[in-house]
Amino acid sequence: MKNILFSLFALTAALSVQPAMAQDGQELFKSKPCAACHSIDTKLVGPALKDVAAKNAGVAGAVDTLASHIKNGTQGNWGPMPMPANPVTDEEAKTLATWVLSLK
């Protein structure tokens, strides 16, 4: 009985964290310079975030790779336009990457 209650508690906690993480990622996206070049659904200067999520779906290590690209910048993944480094912490970059990859 104790194991069942613990499992239910853990499942409830995990399910309640996902929407909060998504909201935190979206709010963080709006508060950083990301929105100057990216939108969720439409290509602007950079790719639509849903396209980034689709390209990286199921890719091992995608969160860490994307977080590195967000923080340090990158070039050549989506054409010749470079993505500059962004003023984010490692934790913020990981939150943004997790949120982007959750988009459908």
Automatic annotation (TrEMBL):
Signal peptide as annotated in the record: 1-22
The entry's keywords: Electron transport, Heme, Iron, Metal-binding, Signal, Transport
The protein, known as: Cytochrome c-551
Species this chain originates from: Pseudomonas syringae
InterPro entries in the record: Cyt_c-like_dom (IPR009056), Cyt_c-like_dom_sf (IPR036909), Cyt_c_ID (IPR002324)
One example GO MF annotation: heme binding
Highest taxon above the source species: Bacteria
Ranges for domain Cytochrome c: 20-104
Post-translational modification: Binds 1 heme c group covalently per subunit.
Binding site for heme c: C34, H38, M83
